[in-house]
Amino acid sequence: MTINDINTTLDEGIMQISKWWTCPSGYENLQEEAHVVGKNELLSRASISDQESMYPRESLKAIADAGFGAVTVPAEYGGLDAGFTGFSVLAESFAQYCASSAMCWVMHTAATQTLFESGNEEQRQRYIPGVIKGDVGGLAFSEPATGGHFWNVVSSATRKGDGYLLNADKSFVTSAGEADWYVLCTNYHDAPQEDKLTFLIVHNDQDGIECFPFNAMGLRGNSSGPMKFKDVFVPTENRLGTEGGMNYYNENTVDPLFLLGTASCWVGVAQGALNAAIDSAKKKVHADTGKSVADYQVIRHELAKGQILVDSARSMLYRTAEGLDKCAQEGLPISEHLFPLWQIKTHAADIVIQVTNQALQVSGGKGYLTGQVEKYLRDGRAGAVMGPTNEILREWIGRTLIQVPWFE
Ligand SMILES: Cc1cc2nc3c(=O)[nH]c(=O)nc-3n(C[C@H](O)[C@H](O)[C@H](O)COP(=O)(O)OP(=O)(O)OC[C@H]3O[C@@H](n4cnc5c(N)ncnc54)[C@H](O)[C@@H]3O)c2cc1C
């Protein structure tokens, strides 16, 4: 009897995977809704977006239309108020179907929440309704001069009339040239405090902006190319928070959402690859032996090893997200709880490389052909190089373990 026979003829004796193991309690409906969007909207466009480096605009609109345009924003502003956990569940689910859409959505959500938390009431009223309808935000932080140290930007803005003149080179901006607006991190050197970091909202259609193509191995739809801002005038009403002093929001809003969101994407990509490999192993039958690939014990062990890795990351992911939600509810500063975030981003970005590689192996030559499984591998490889990179995060974790300051 083959695995396929067992699946079709016997219900008894088949262990079902408990929902509580794969979804945090209370988020089951949200997870199901996300999978409906993923199956019906994201999956069908994922390949073409990858092949043609096409920005997943329609998929992002579908996500917004399903009510996920402002998921971390409080309900009184029209948001979903889903917290860190809801955000993580959605990102993981979307990434199983289209990593580019999921990544653009993660950056959009982090940008939106940064605008919401650091902006004033007028700015919230000006931007949040658009976001709910499908406007897309981006984060323009990383610069070529400082690379992976994206919190140490060298660009600057100077005062000009009732606004600022911005000059900045950004190395990677997800949704570059495609987002409606960006939260851009720069320095204002005349700021009174030591921390000169200043956040400006810059619109995509402003004069002085140049975008460059993103031609990468994976995440090919997400347009994460460089952007240049030359003498771009930003009115004072588009400055978020204070002149300088914005590192607080880096540590309490941008980094936590960025780390959790990207980690969620890598868990989703790994699960998506494994699902594709399971499907392939069950369907492929060798005519000579009459056995499917899934009938070989060594293959089942590969699947098991992959799933254990995915679930190790997923457990850490949801425990971290729930812990952060508790901190937020109790008014504790998120910046004092970054340690699990560093670990989960590192672990998820590590395991996605391993699991997508195993999934390709299980899928055989077909897995190597241009298509679903090799795409997961290419997409997932971005995790370790995306900032804070795994090398930087391991250093922060190690420094914390020996109790010396993590940040030099
Ligand atoms: C697909 C993609 C999307 C992105 N989207 C965005 C976005 O929307 N917004 C944004 O602002 N940025 C974005 N980034 C940039 C990202 O967050 C990182 O800043 C960037 O990937 C770091 O790459 P780099 O080549 O500049 O790093 P480099 O600094 O040149 O690093 C090169 C190598 O040196 C290592 N290294 C660097 N510093 C240290 C250190 N202190 N200790 C030990 N090792 C170190 C790195 O780990 C890496 O292995 C994106 C990047 C990618 C790849």
TrEMBL record:
State whether keyword Flavoprotein applies. yes
Query: What residue range is the signal peptide?
Result: none
Q: Which domain of life is it from?
A: Bacteria
**What residues does the Acyl-CoA oxidase/dehydrogenase middle domain cover?**
139-232
Q: Which GO terms describe its molecular function?
A: acyl-CoA dehydrogenase activity; flavin adenine dinucleotide binding
Domain spans labelled Acyl-CoA dehydrogenase/oxidase N-terminal:
28-135
Sequence ranges assigned to domain Acyl-CoA dehydrogenase/oxidase C-terminal in this UniProt record = 261-401
The cofactors required by this protein are: FAD
What keyword terms does UniProt attach to this protein?
Answer: FAD, Flavoprotein, Oxidoreductase
Q: Which InterPro entries match?
A: Acyl-CoA_Oxase/DH_mid-dom, Acyl-CoA_Oxase/DH_mid-dom_sf, AcylCo_DH-like_C, AcylCo_DH/oxidase_C, AcylCoA_DH/ox_N, AcylCoA_DH/ox_N_sf, AcylCoA_DH/oxidase_NM_dom_sf
Matching Pfam families: Acyl-CoA_dh_1 (PF00441), Acyl-CoA_dh_M (PF02770), Acyl-CoA_dh_N (PF02771)
Q: Which family does it belong to?
A: Belongs to the acyl-CoA dehydrogenase family.
What is the protein's given name? Answer: Acyl-CoA dehydrogenase
Q: What species was this sequence derived from?
A: Alteribacillus bidgolensis
